[in-house]
C-alpha cells in the first residue's frame, strides 16, 4: 500500500468515546529521558511502565526499536502511518537508506498508551493493511486515520547523539537519547524520574490541538472588517467538490474529508485573531446545486466547531 494512499483523509462520524481514555488535564504531560550507548553486537531493553522499550540488532547492520507489552505487541507501529514501507523504527541500512543516512536523523513517533487503546484500535489497523478483507474496503484507510485522530497518545523523541559507521557503511557503535512524553495518567516505572511539561499538540485528539496552541477568539481585532482583503485569519470557501482554504502565505484545496487535518496543520502565525475562521459558499453554481452546497456548508461548520473554531460566514461572492 503506497504512502500516497495513506494521504487520503476521510473524517467519518465515529463516537468520541471509542477509547476509554482518562479525563486528565489535556495540556499537562510528564516526560522521562534515557541515554543509550550500544556496540553493534548489543541489544537493549528498558522497562518504561507496563511497556518495555527494546532495541534489537538487525541481521545486516544497526537496530530496530519497539515499545512492547508482555505479549510482544508493539505500541509504536500502529500509531504512525504509513503502515507499510515505513523506516521510522529502523536505525540502520534498509528501506533505501544507507546506515549513515538512517543514523543522521532523529525520530519523533507517537505511541499508544494502554492495552484498551491497542485492542480497540487494532481492528482499524488490520483493515487499513488489508482493505480487501475489511467490511468497508473503500473507507478502511480513512476510518483508520479518523480513529487515530481521536486518540490521545504518547510521544517518543529519539535523537542520535553519536554514531560510528565504517566506510563500507557498517555500524560499529552509537549513542542515543530517548525522551518519552505521556499524560499524567501514564505512570512511568518508579526508577524513572519524570518532569512536567506541556503536552505536544500531536499527542492530543485532533479536536484539542488548536485550543492547546491558539488563544480564544478576539473579536476586537476583526469586528470592523468589511473587506475580505483585510481578513488576516484563514478564509474558507465551500466549493462543489470540497473546499478552498486561504491563509497568510498560501492556500489549500481538497475534499471536505481533509478539512480538519488541513486546518490543524496551519502554522500559529496565521491566527492573529484567535480561533476564528471566515467562510463563504462558492458563488459559482449550476441550477439545482443549492441543496448540495447547503449540506456541504453544514458539514464544514460541524468539522470546524469540533476543532474549537468559530465561523464568521460571509455572503457568497
- Class from secondary-structure proportions: alpha+beta
How far is the N terminus from the C terminus? 41 Å
Shape: elongated
H/E series, N to C? EEEEEHEHHEEEHEEEHEHE
Rg over C-alpha atoms, rounded to the nearest angstrom: 22 Å
Whole-number mean pLDDT: 88
**Count of discrete structural domains:** 2
Beta strand %: 25-35%
The number of helical segments is: 6
What profile does the largest beta sheet have? 5 strands, antiparallel
**Helical content band:** 10-25%
Describe the structure in your own words.
The structure is a single chain. The chain has two domains: 5-200, no CATH class; 214-313, Nucleotidyltransferase, domain 5, CATH 3.30.420. It contains six helices and 14 strands. The protein has helices at residues 99-102, 115-129, 140-149, 206-213, 259-264, 290-306, and strands at 28-39, 44-47, 52-57, 62-68, 90-92, 107-111, 154-165, 171-183, 195-198, 235-239, 242-247, 250-254, 276-281, 310-313. The strands form three sheets. It has a five-stranded antiparallel β-sheet with strand order 6-7-8-1-9, with no helix packed on it. A hairpin with a 4-residue loop joins strand 2 (44-47) and strand 3 (52-57). Helix 2 (115-129) runs antiparallel to helix 3.
Amino acid at each position: 500500500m503506497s504512502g500516497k494512499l495513506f494521504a487520503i483523509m476521510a473524517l467519518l462520524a465515529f463516537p468520541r468515546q471509542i477509547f476509554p481514555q482518562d479525563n486528565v488535564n489535556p495540556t499537562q504531560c510528564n516526560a522521562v529521558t534515557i541515554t543509550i550507548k550500544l556496540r553493534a553486537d548489543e541489544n537493549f531493553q528498558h522497562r518504561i511502565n507496563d511497556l518495555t522499550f527494546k532495541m534489537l540488532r538487525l541481521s545486516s547492520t544497526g537496530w530496530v526499536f519497539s515499545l512492547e507489552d508482555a505479549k510482544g505487541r508493539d505500541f509504536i507501529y500502529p500509531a504512525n502511518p504509513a503502515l507499510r514501507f515505513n523506516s521510522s523504527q529502523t536505525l540502520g541500512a534498509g528501506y533505501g537508506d544507507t546506515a549513515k543516512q538512517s543514523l543522521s536523523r532523529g525520530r519523533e513517533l507517537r505511541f499508544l498508551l494502554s492495552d484498551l487503546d491497542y485492542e480497540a484500535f487494532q481492528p482499524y489497523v488490520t483493515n487499513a493493511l488489508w482493505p480487501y478483507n475489511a467490511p468497508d474496503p473503500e473507507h478502511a484507510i480513512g476510518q483508520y486515520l479518523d480513529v487515530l485522530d481521536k486518540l490521545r497518545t504518547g510521544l517518543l523523541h529519539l535523537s542520535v547523539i553519536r554514531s560510528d559507521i565504517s566506510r563500507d557503511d557498517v555500524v560499529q557503535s552509537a549513542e542515543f537519547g530517548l525522551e518519552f512524553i505521556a499524560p499524567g495518567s501514564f505512570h512511568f516505572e518508579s526508577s524513572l524520574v519524570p518532569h512536567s511539561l506541556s503536552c505536544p499538540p500531536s499527542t492530543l485528539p485532533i479536536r484539542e490541538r488548536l485550543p492547546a496552541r491558539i488563544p480564544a477568539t478576539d473579536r476586537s481585532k476583526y469586528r470592523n472588517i468589511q473587506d475580505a482583503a483585510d481578513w488576516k485569519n484563514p478564509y474558507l470557501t465551500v466549493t462543489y467538490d470540497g473546499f478552498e482554504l486561504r491563509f497568510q502565505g498560501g492556500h489549500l484545496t481538497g475534499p471536505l474529508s481533509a478539512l480538519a487535518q488541513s486546518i490543524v496543520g496551519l502554522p500559529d502565525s496565521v491566527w492573529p485573531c484567535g480561533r476564528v475562521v471566515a467562510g463563504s459558499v462558492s458563488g459559482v453554481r449550476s441550477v439545482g446545486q443549492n441543496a448540495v452546497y447547503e449540506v456541504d456548508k453544514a458539514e464544514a461548520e460541524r468539522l470546524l466547531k469540533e476543532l474549537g473554531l468559530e465561523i464568521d460566514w460571509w455572503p457568497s461572492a
